[in-house]
From TrEMBL:
<dbReference type="Pfam" id="PF01145">
    <property type="entry name" value="Band_7"/>
</dbReference>
<protein>
    <submittedName>
        <fullName>Stomatin</fullName>
    </submittedName>
</protein>
<dbReference type="InterPro" id="IPR001107">
    <property type="entry name" value="Band_7"/>
</dbReference>
<feature type="domain" description="Band 7">
    <location>
        <begin position="49"/>
        <end position="208"/>
    </location>
</feature>
<dbReference type="InterPro" id="IPR036013">
    <property type="entry name" value="Band_7/SPFH_dom_sf"/>
</dbReference>
<dbReference type="InterPro" id="IPR001972">
    <property type="entry name" value="Stomatin_HflK_fam"/>
</dbReference>
<dbReference type="GO" id="GO:0005886">
    <property type="term" value="C:plasma membrane"/>
</dbReference>
<keyword id="KW-0472">Membrane</keyword>
<feature type="transmembrane region" description="Helical">
    <location>
        <begin position="28"/>
        <end position="51"/>
    </location>
</feature>
<feature type="compositionally biased region" description="Polar residues">
    <location>
        <begin position="9"/>
        <end position="20"/>
    </location>
</feature>
<keyword id="KW-1133">Transmembrane helix</keyword>
<dbReference type="InterPro" id="IPR043202">
    <property type="entry name" value="Band-7_stomatin-like"/>
</dbReference>
<keyword id="KW-0812">Transmembrane</keyword>
<feature type="region of interest" description="Disordered">
    <location>
        <begin position="1"/>
        <end position="20"/>
    </location>
</feature>
<dbReference type="InterPro" id="IPR018080">
    <property type="entry name" value="Band_7/stomatin-like_CS"/>
</dbReference>
<comment type="similarity">
    <text>Belongs to the band 7/mec-2 family.</text>
</comment>
Amino acid sequence: MSAKDNGPGYSSSTPQEQDDGSANSCCVMALVFISYLVAACTLPFSLFYIIKVVQEYERAVIFRMGRLLPGPAKGPGVFFILPCIDSFTTVDLRTVSFDVPPQEILSKDSVTIAVDAVVYFRVMNPTISITNVEHYKHSTELLAQTTLRNILGTKSLGEILSDREQISHSIQSILDEATDPWGVKVERVEVKDVKLPVQLQRAMAAEAEASREARAKVIAAEGERNASRALKEAADVIAESPSALQLRYLQTLSAISAEKNSTIIFPLPIEMMAQWTK
């Protein structure tokens, strides 16, 4: 018969376990009484051990005889512990940052690159960060390294170089979900640098230079085409009025004479040249 069938008053623990729990409770109560007695007998020297202070940005998680005390973490300010039976761990609640070492990553298009990042996180629940994981900061660092490799391994080189913000948001959401049972909140992830192989850098530089030269040639060709159209239109206008050609000839002569040249050019009348052509 299961415990559910025996009614709400039924306890699944055996009589031996109940006796052990009662014995432990009695032992803890006796040790607490002795600890109070020792603290009272050694006053005021025991105050140096009993009174503890944590800063505004810190919290203290207290354990008594290896068991977590009920209630939230202590702090900020002054709190008391019992000598010999109490121990505590201080947790910093400020935002902490760490650098993810450069990770050798093979991108989706089979390019080997080295990527590093920086992660910002803080502790949301001090009690869980102590009881649910050992060294929450070190665990978060290792998880950030593996997540960075896994995410970037599914991206091509072009996506890694152009979509850094989206990649950072993806890594941040995955880390935040994974560290939530640890009482840790990942606030921000930034991809710092992407290091490419030297041969690939040279190839990309050559490709960019060739692209710039091609654009320059296209722009020059368009300029020549526009200039030729303008010359054609000017020639049509001059052809309609013979005096306009004479005026243009005089303007050119004025521009040449302004350069202090030793050669003097005397223009011939256009009408005389027209007679010769006839």
